[in-house]
Batch of 2 targets.
Target 1
Amino acid sequence: MHEQAVRSAVRRPRMTPDRASELLDVTLDILREVGYGSLSMDLIASRGRCSKATIYRQWGSKAQMVAAAVAALRPADSVGGDAGSLRGDLLLLFEQLGSRADKDTTMIAALHHALLTDAKLAEAFRVSMLEPAREELAGIVERAMRRQELPDRPGAAQFLPSLVWSALVARPFFEGLTADADYLEQFVDDVILPALQHS
Amino acid sequence: MHEQAVRSAVRRPRMTPDRASELLDVTLDILREVGYGSLSMDLIASRGRCSKATIYRQWGSKAQMVAAAVAALRPADSVGGDAGSLRGDLLLLFEQLGSRADKDTTMIAALHHALLTDAKLAEAFRVSMLEPAREELAGIVERAMRRQELPDRPGAAQFLPSLVWSALVARPFFEGLTADADYLEQFVDDVILPALQHS
């Protein structure tokens, strides 16, 4: 099997990076629409206008293709920034995350069950979605400590990624409503700041 | 179609309630294992040792069958209780919810995407899983106000269901770890109590 794959890679030109990235975007679009379980290579091939053989040659399996699509995402790299205060930093982060919350929430929902059962997919998701967010949040706490807005590393800091996630994901889940700017600002003022400031 | 359904219901005996409840349990088991998208009536029929026709006659569609299975759950009816203090009430609730967190977390993950797109399923889930939990949490806040542990209805009270959900669901999602008793106790002390007590 392996030798055959090598020979076929030699015989045919590899997919261009642009084309590969296009097919990964198609994969994410379908994923958001139908969820992981109903996503099929047939759907990807038909929407992406290519053969299933091409897709299997490039990515090997549905699980690997979805992991590659998730790994290609780096949304949290472009968020965050120093707004001059702890509250300002949190609101800025939520403003940026909130603006694409619908897309991210649907993708998280689509992947949720698969992430609990597929370790490779979970790893890809952790590296591309969670770690950048975790680092950004650690930076926000660091800056607040330097500004002496927080006296010491607060116990609640370890829960910040969960809290941010909860703010964005829980409302659509519980109420069928998007977490809008007012909701997120209240969450910052009533939950995150009191939790961080307590120690 | 409707007349035919009526005639066939007359011709054949209805399923006994015990048998129906058994098949709904089978549905939830498969749901937790494979997720909503990969759950099929074939799988339910084969695991439940009955014909697909029987299932369709009883529930009409996969979506309706899953909604019925979810509606039959009333787990939060049996949780909660007055432990004498706000902290005690929250720890008691988490102890009860935590003991079956694996099962609930997997089911929530399996349903997450479908809940965003299927209004009837979302309604069944809201009525059987969310509303009882919301009422229990409102009761905890009421009791704390009567005990004068909380001065007034705190702004964070509206976020309590999201926070409880976040504590239970976020850790498996982020770290692949179950939210154990230590983790939940820290979450109560570092996040929920400071948020409620602030006003």
Target 2
Amino acid sequence: MRRTSRDIRTANRYEVLRHIIADSPLSRRELAQLTGLSQATVATLVTELLDLGLLTDVGFEDSEGGRPRGLLAVAAGRGALVGVDVAETYVHAELFDLSLKVVARADREVRPGENRPEQVVALIADAVDEVLAGHAGRVLGVGVALPGQVDREGGVSVYAPNWDWHDVPLRALLAERVDPPLHLDNPLHAGTVAELWSGAARGREDAVVVNLGTGVGAGLALGGGLYRGIGNSAGEWGHTTLVLDGRLCHCGNRGCVETYVGAPGIMLNLRELSPSSPLLHPDDQTATVRALAAAAAAGEPVAVQAVRDTARYLGAGIADLVNLLNPEVIVLSSWVTTYLGELLLGEVRTAVARHALRHSLARAEIVLSPIPTDPVCLGAATFALERALAPTPTMRRTP
Amino acid sequence: MRRTSRDIRTANRYEVLRHIIADSPLSRRELAQLTGLSQATVATLVTELLDLGLLTDVGFEDSEGGRPRGLLAVAAGRGALVGVDVAETYVHAELFDLSLKVVARADREVRPGENRPEQVVALIADAVDEVLAGHAGRVLGVGVALPGQVDREGGVSVYAPNWDWHDVPLRALLAERVDPPLHLDNPLHAGTVAELWSGAARGREDAVVVNLGTGVGAGLALGGGLYRGIGNSAGEWGHTTLVLDGRLCHCGNRGCVETYVGAPGIMLNLRELSPSSPLLHPDDQTATVRALAAAAAAGEPVAVQAVRDTARYLGAGIADLVNLLNPEVIVLSSWVTTYLGELLLGEVRTAVARHALRHSLARAEIVLSPIPTDPVCLGAATFALERALAPTPTMRRTP
Ligand SMILES: [Zn+2]
Ligand SMILES: [Zn+2]
């Protein structure tokens, strides 16, 4: 209710385009049904999107006994979007066409200790340059997801606990190397929007996307849309207390969920069981988690126990989300899930059941993200797309 | 988007009436501005509400240089609503006029062990009879807030941990004693709606209402409206884990927030400091909390320390809400807050600051509920009002 008519117009354009991307081709009538907007509003929005070159007419379909209806599809090749997933250990950049298909990808490694802002900016810029190298058409925008708390209006990394970043003006730094528009947000929000568009939260009313990486967090999709909180910082489940006075966390608190189920926490779970385990690569989270996954899959007792311990902590933390938010689905995502998800899932479900209220548990599915590419890149690209849809003075057709 | 046009119509009626109750008198134009609805829609809704006898014309006001505008107010005396707050230790019933002013009140005590469904039904029915005794006009509905998880569609108490109730068909039992329509929900939701209408969450985008009683919970007002979750069970913060493997909870989990900051948890905090404290009334939570508050206010060291310990647990639990939900305001409410709120507030703020992320903390006020009567009765009455606004076939005026 506090949104301006310009906000509502952007949101409606985005809704129409989102449905066409998801279910192309669609008629105007089908769009009205799917979006709940009036046919007149849909007709206006479709005309605008056609004029912007984002949609294309793809022929006609006979409706039953009625007059033929125009079908609309995304003009996939008429523009591109870039989505960048910046994590503590890597940078992934993906180039998308307007149907949100990945057309190019570049990866960079963030080495331990090489995480000063100018180093990270260089990695992002290099990766974006690489995916755009063979691309000739227009780029509607670049979305960048950064770990931690992000002021998306100001384009500032407010706080990244694992890098000890405070108030880094990342969009300004990045603008010297990457052409705008640049859109900053965090991976929780990006990954959650990706699940809403094309993953396990699609069509769900209330969903939680649990990101398991170096840091951990819970993106919240409540009432069918992303919930951001008043300062765009909702989702910091990784810094909720699981063990009062427990393990010390980067954030200054003790016993945070993240210290038990983030990649460094998992390494510590393993080290507590076997201080000299050959699975431990002290300076390499990725190598350790990969080795742990392989060993657990092969049935090595220490590895199996470390996964079980991690699942126990994770289950207690997820039960908190089930009890507090009563969601329909909990989606596990991010790179630790890629390695350990299948191994964790059964134990996690058992642990959640031990901690959660029966009535809430009964409604909560727990699944692995079904998105085959990097959901955070996809979500970051959709943020850039959303921004590109905001009407500018020259875009306005009706008063 | 998945709401039917009937749902939307009810919601719009409710919005219009809500604004008139809060800011009476209002013109149709002001209502359109406040609700974001079109002037035509507001005009239709106002006509319907006038026809239903819920509104009244209260004269005209000159707009600046324009034609005079009709001002609308609630027809306060043209109907009544009953709101009932059922807690583990008491039943409060309040009779409201249509402007939601309290016009009568009745209290009953729920004695230890006297909490079988038929006993609680008798207490509710007696209290409702008492507030209605002198009332001659029409009653639009009775809202009843019950502790624990409530299926409001089915009118069933799904689970009340402190009473060990499972799937009790309370609306059906109550219908033998109290005239319908009867509307069931839980005190978290009722108290949260009361704060949204006329308390500390009014005009706030994202708020959390922390109920501190025998049980504890956190009502969530996200995006300006009550968040219920998929099974109407959102808010069970009392059963999130604060101390893994900590104190055993009624729910079967260990270390739940409730076991440290619910009234029995506070008694245990006191007992751990001083097993034979004269402040302890083993079978009477209310007397113990009252005695503790008086002793702490008088500076008795053990009482001061018990309040401090409670604030420490409470602060850690509230920091979880700050980090996960990034709200604008946290409102402390319910009967334990009535006794201990002023004593807890400073220590709680300090404890939250120790655990929460700085950026999220900076946006989160922590306040005591400003509602002078029982917010849960008020909220339960508004649920009954909302239900009364649902168009029935005979109410429909336009196709
Ligand atoms: Zn932390
Ligand atoms: Zn519990």
